[in-house]
Design goal:
With 252 residues, the protein is mostly helical. It is built from 13 helices and three strands. The protein has a three-stranded parallel sheet with strand order 1-2-3. Helix 4 links the parallel strand 1 and strand 2. The model has no long low-confidence stretch (mean pLDDT 86). GO terms for molecular function: ADP binding.
Length: 252
């Protein structure tokens, strides 16, 4: 299943790191794997029946869940012939594996349990004997693709002063707070407003379930009306081809 999933992600043009492609198997996670986890935008964790038997897998998961807190990494779990509650509460084969770990890896059991509990509470895909695996893989790849930024995070990073302004703008957005926040950027023409907004979008858009960058609002609305912009916005947010009959309909 993982092999087919990896191939489908690669075919979609998504840069995917799979630990057994380049790393020798062992009991300790090497720096290369830690670096790969930390630099990834999304971690796709496939929980199998024997997942908890491996201290390697549990170490990986613990580091991934750390990156959720420290780097805002997105975790997408796949429960492959496993009940999410078994993962969350370490029951069934997971419970059996942990009884063994208590004897052999006593100092790590606490962090592993915490990581499994957090991951098991996330919504993901449950695959069992009634699932159509090819269809599931297609859905997973579609979801991963939609959550990746449409612009590179390095956009305009070489411009002098952009990084300071970008950090200031991000702090004003207060991304982790509740509610809706709107930021207006005011300045003379050619002062870098669009450049700054585009850089912010490229850096933070992957944290959201849906995102859209609309540019040249005034020019586009004068040429084609607001309906065209509404259609573009709704199509990107809803990930469907949306047609708007009127400005009032689009607004509703």
């Amino acid at each position: 299943f993982v092999d087919h999933l990896y191939a489908a992600l690669a075919q979609q043009g998504i840069q995917t790191y799979k630990d057994d492609e380049t790393l020798p198997r062992g009991e300790r996670i090497g720096p290369a794997l830690l670096k790969a986890i930390e630099e990834s935008r999304i971690a796709l964790v496939v929980f199998s029946e024997n997942y908890a038997d491996s201290s390697w897998c549990l170490d990986e998961l613990a580091h991934i869940m750390e990156c959720v807190d420290t780097k805002g990494q997105i975790v997408e779990p796949v429960f492959y012939f496993v009940d999410p509650s078994d993962v969350r509460k370490q029951k069934g084969k997971y419970g059996k594996a942990f009884r063994k770990h208590k004897r052999e890896n006593k100092h790590k059991v606490g962090s592993w349990r915490k990581a499994l509990e957090k991951a098991g509470n996330l919504s993901g895909w449950v695959i069992d004997e009634n699932s159509h695996e090819a269809k599931c893989i297609k859905e997973i790849v579609g979801t991963i693709s939609s959550r990746l930024p449409t612009l590179t995070t390095n956009v305009n990073k070489d411009l002098i002063g952009i990084e300071t302004r970008l950090q200031d703008l991000k702090s004003k957005l207060k991304i982790k707070s509740d509610g809706v926040r709107i930021i207006g950027i005011w300045g003379v023409g050619g002062g870098g407003k669009t450049t700054l907004a585009s850089a912010a979008y490229a850096e933070i858009s992957h944290r959201f379930e849906a995102h859209c960058l609309l540019q040249n609002i005034r020019e586009e609305s004068n040429k084609h009306g607001l309906e065209r912009l509404q259609e573009k916005f709704l199509s990107l947010i809803l990930k469907a081809d949306v047609k708007v009959g009127s400005e009032i309909e689009g607004r509703s």
